[in-house]
Design goal:
heterodimer, A: 195 residues, 68% helix, 1% strand, B: 806 residues, mainly beta, Hypothetical Protein Tm1070, Chain: A, Immunoglobulin-like, 8-stranded mixed beta sheet, 59 strands
């Protein structure tokens, strides 16, 4: 744990939570990705921390992609604390993965660099239904701005080009998983893309 | 010499190649020279006393090649080889090495260089003959010549100082038939002489101009000997051939002796038909002690010959610049009788930095009076000579090989021989890896010396901060003035300990290249009433043929640009009309171009970058279904379980609640625009309540609320068809999974607008609002609360954000 995080922990014990979080957010805004990562790892489900967590993820995302993307992928299953408004049931954009899982939102915004890394991540997980894989696929879907046919085509192409049978199979399974995102309009094309 | 029309040089090539017969076997690929202007050195000497080195220089940015042919006296190729010249470099080539590689025992003959054919003749050359007959070396400098225009009969003239015996003339035939060449000497201290020689096709000979019975190596030996010879003083040499002038290349030198052995001065032949003015320029002359030559003291003289049948009134003006002050004065006035020669002694004092120049004027037509300049040194350097330049020469620049190896000095001299105003001189010093570019202003009649040693040693930066590496000790220097007749220049490469003060003055024509480049902003996209930049614009100088623009790029040049729009109904120039970057303003949606140009002495450079004025109109869909071409519909359906818009209440997708699905549509103009456009949304004000009690909202206004359910490609191919200029933003604000029977209320005011990839606004704002009151119903499923009038709707405009909308 870095000194700054230790200091934060001490402050949390001494000051009112909201005041502490406010100070943490200010320090995160000008801090490094490392500080942001440590903050995420040590924050609790405090509603006052919700916006600060979003900020921490954004601080990670604006770093060099080669450093930030692996960190964000590592946080794919991290569900942020809900803020007070959300705890009252109020949501601005529903409760989709990109709203609740800040790594998904940030990876979706990073575009092609993140897509390559996410596709590389998918074969590493045995469980295709795991939260990490679902969120990875959703992030890819965000990168394609919802164009699920494009995502299926990409996953199929990567499967064909992958080295081993395990990776090939997992990518094919992932492509098939994407069918759930195909609506009536896109389903015929989705199925064509899966053939 | 003037350039040669294309048809003529083709015939010359036939002649050159026909005489270069039976080349010996050699390793390099035998590539037939294509259409390029050959350069000729009529004589080389390669034996125990003399060595010859050809120095090629590439004035262009790009790499080029040149084929060198060494011919024996009969015009038969003794050696040939192709050489690669990186951009802005020079390359010394020892003739001995070429002959040795080919196993040839030839000791004299001529050299032809066939440069890679590109416009503007960026490759120049000079053949330096070094004599080691004395205790210190001595030098003969032979500028490579291009065949002149074919005037008939061919006439060449030169003048030599302090001749004992006879100047030696080297003649090289480029004709396919034998020609008869007549040589006349007009001597200051002896009677005239006249003789003829026969020159067969392709042949090169050495002949004593004033005694044609002496030819070949024997003529040189006689000139170098200390045998008593006729003291002729100044000598004018006239050469007339029965062939057209372009079929004969000539060059001469005069030999002298002192206690250190023989030494030489070079005699360049001029074609009177190619002369444009009666003023002759000598740039950067030594007079008195000279710092760069270790205080060797020089006594400058001119040989002036009048070849006309009329007397010539001749004046010599000397311009001296010392400590920034220039003074020009007539130092000699004389009348030269018809067909006579005279030695003119000049003041033996001047600027120690050699910032001295001469203008020799005659009242006769161009070419009738010819002069040669020599400064006689009293110690290390025995002579400094430089080629006479025609005041009105069409050439406006030069390209020379510089070196600072082994204590060598390279000094560039310029002379602004105009009298009306200061003039701009451009210089480009290259070393093959870096290009140092600068501009200098010279006052009328000012001479300027620029030391390349100083630029390298002191790491002097150019205006762009480029410094020349100290590790690279040779290269090429190019220079030019913006108009011919303004200035002359030369490079002196000196090594006083070796008695060397070599002058390079090969001329070029340079001007503005036709194309201007825009980087990094080579295109601009902006909204109506928005602005966007193009540029900065960069211009280049090109080596060109002297009568046209364009050519082979030489380096960057600063010009004053002029920007404009090609369609002012789409975009107009907003700022920077005469600066490197032009800023344009969007008037109406559409495509046009931003144009830039600069003009410099009749040459125009032009550049252009596409401009796109983009506009967008944002509308709100809150009923029916998500648009067919909205690819983000998948994300929307995944969130709310339906493609329907508007109030969605109850179990929807994975959640239970009350939301208002809505779709912002950005219609982009031009509809074929391919850039990224995003419809953004801002939460302007908000009120959140449980019953009538305020609770926190998820976002604190003002806040960006764009969300992730967006498309940004107006041309996206979707399952519903091509987007055809539309982008979308889907949203589902509302209340989810509430467990309380007390209504949870939201009141949101939004502003939506479209932006391009750089965040520039493309559309007017639209304002809309959302109000919802939702509670857990009796069946445990969410339902709307209707206790507030006007609640649960989405609409254009704004709403009050109080719980009861009052």
């Amino acid at each position: 744990m870095s000194n700054s995080v230790k200091l934060l922990a001490v402050l949390i014990g001494c000051l009112l939570p909201s005041e502490v979080i406010s100070q943490e957010c200010r320090s995160l805004a000008s801090g490094s990705a490392t500080v942001a990562t440590e903050y995420i790892e040590h924050t609790d489900d405090n509603p006052d921390a919700a916006s600060c967590v979003k900020l921490a993820f954004h601080q990670i995302a604006v770093g060099p992609p080669a450093e930030s993307i692996p960190v964000l992928i590592n946080f794919l299953s991290y569900k942020r604390p809900l803020n007070k408004g959300e705890r009252s049931g109020i949501f601005m954009h529903g409760k989709g993965p990109s709203e609740l899982y800040p790594a998904v939102h940030e990876l979706g915004g990073l575009g092609p660099d993140a897509e390559v890394a996410l596709i590389g991540f998918i074969p590493s997980k045995e469980d295709s239904n795991s939260l990490e894989i679902e969120n990875a696929l959703y992030a890819i879907l965000l990168i394609h701005h919802g164009n699920v046919v494009g995502v299926i085509q990409r996953l199929r192409a990567e499967a064909e080009n992958s080295d081993g049978p395990t990776a090939r199979n997992r990518l094919k399974v992932a492509a098939r998983t994407m069918l759930r995102w195909c609506d009536d309009r896109s389903r015929p094309e989705c199925e064509r893309a899966l053939r | 010499m003037a350039q040669m029309p294309g048809a003529l040089f083709c015939s010359l090539l036939l002649a050159s190649l026909s005489v270069a017969q039976n080349p010996p076997a050699q390793k390099s690929t035998s590539k037939t020279p294509s259409l390029s202007m050959p350069m000729v050195a009529p004589v080389f000497l390669e034996d125990a006393e003399f060595t010859s080195t050809l120095t090629l220089v590439n004035d262009a940015i790009q790499d080029l090649s040149a084929r060198v042919l060494v011919l024996d006296p009969h015009g038969v190729a003794a050696a040939q080889k192709e050489f690669h010249l990186p951009g802005h470099t020079s390359l010394p080539i020892r003739v001995h090495d070429l002959l040795e590689e080919s196993g040839s025992a030839v000791t004299t003959g001529s050299v032809i260089v066939m440069p890679q054919p590109v416009p503007g003749m960026p490759i120049g050359g000079q053949l330096s003959i070094t004599s080691r007959a004395g205790s210190i070396p001595s030098y003969i400098e032979e500028e490579m010549l291009m065949p002149d225009e074919k005037t008939t009969p061919g006439i060449y003239r030169t003048s030599a100082l302090a001749v004992n015996g006879s100047p030696i003339i080297a003649l090289k035939s480029l004709a396919q038939t034998t020609q008869t060449v007549t040589l006349e000497c007009l001597s200051e201290k002896a009677g005239p002489t006249k003789g003829t020689v026969q020159l067969s096709s392709g042949e090169s000979i050495l002949v004593a101009a004033c005694d044609v019975s002496q030819t070949g190596r024997a003529a040189i030996a006689e000139a170098m000997s200390d045998n008593p010879a006729v003291d002729r003083g100044a000598v004018g040499v006239a050469i007339t051939t029965t062939a057209p002038s372009g079929d004969l290349i000539g060059y001469g030198f005069a030999a002298y002796r002192d206690d250190r052995g023989p030494y030489f001065t070079s005699l360049n032949l001029t074609d009177p038909a190619a002369m444009v003015s009666s003023n002759t320029i000598f740039t950067g002359i030594p007079a008195g002690p000279v710092d760069a030559l270790l205080r060797t003291t020089f006594r400058p003289e001119l040989a002036v010959s009048n070849f006309s049948s009329l007397p010539a009134q001749v004046s010599v003006t000397r311009a001296r610049t010392t400590a920034g002050k220039t003074k020009a004065s007539v130092v000699q006035n004389l009348v030269l009788p018809p067909r006579s020669s005279k030695t003119v002694k000049l003041p033996a004092e001047g600027d120690p930095g050699m910032a001295n120049s001469l203008v020799v004027h005659s009242n006769l037509p161009p070419g009738e009076v010819v002069s040669q300049f020599v400064a006689w040194g009293d110690s290390l350097v025995r002579t400094v000579e430089l080629q006479a330049k025609d005041n009105d020469s069409i050439q406006n620049g030069g390209g020379h090989p510089w070196s600072i190896e082994n204590g060598t000095n390279s000094t560039l001299f310029w002379f602004n021989h105009s009298t009306d105003a200061p003039k701009k001189f451009e210089v480009l010093i290259g070393n093959g890896k870096q290009l140092w570019v600068n501009t200098y202003m010279l006052a009328p009649m000012e001479t300027k010396a620029i030391s390349i040693n100083e630029i390298v040693d002191k790491q002097i930066p150019d205006p762009d901060g480029v410094v020349l590496s100290k590790d690279i000790l040779t290269g090429q220097v190019g220079w030019w003035t913006h108009r011919a007749k303004w200035g002359k220049g030369r490079l002196m490469v000196s090594q006083p300990q070796s008695g060397l003060a070599r002058s390079f003055s090969c001329g070029t024509c340079a001007g503005l290249c036709a194309d201007a480049t825009l980087s990094p902003a080579s295109s601009a996209i902006f909204g109506v009433t928005g602005t966007g930049p193009l540029g900065p614009v960069a211009f280049k100088t090109c080596l060109k043929s002297c009568t046209s623009c364009g050519g082979t790029p030489q380096g960057p040049i600063t010009e004053i640009p002029q920007w404009s729009s090609s369609n002012t109904s789409i975009a107009t120039l907003y700022a920077g009309q005469h600066t490197k970057t032009g800023t344009f303003y969007g008037v109406n949606a559409g495509f046009t171009s931003g144009d830039v140009q600069a003009t410099d002495e009749g040459c125009t450079a032009q550049g252009s970058g596409p401009l796109t004025t983009v506009s967008a109109t944002v509308t709100l869909n809150s009923s029916g279904q998500v648009s067919a071409t909205d690819a983000a519909s998948t994300l929307y359906k995944g969130t709310v379980g339906t493609l329907n818009l508007g109030l969605l209440v109850g179990n929807r997708g994975v959640n239970d609640g009350c939301v208002i699905g809505n779709e912002l549509v950005g219609a982009v103009q031009p509809s074929t625009f391919t850039g990224s456009v995003t419809v953004k949304r801002t939460l302007n004000s908000a009120g959140c309540y449980q019953g009538s009690t305020a609770v926190s909202c998820p976002e604190t206004p003002p806040a960006d609320d764009t969300g992730d359910m967006i498309t940004t490609d107006p041309q996206e191919n979707t399952p519903g068809g091509p987007a055809n200029g539309h982008v979308y933003n889907l949203d589902v604000p509302g209340v989810l999974d509430t467990s309380t029977t007390t209504p949870v209320r939201v009141r949101f005011n939004f502003t939506a607008y479209a932006v391009d990839a750089n965040g520039n606004t493309l559309s007017p704002n639209i304002n809309y609002f959302v109000t919802i009151s939702c509670k857990n119903g009796s069946s445990g499923v969410a339902q709307l609360s209707t206790d507030v009038s006007g609640d649960n709707q989405i609409g254009m405009g704004t709403t009050k954000t109080t719980w009861n909308l009052q």
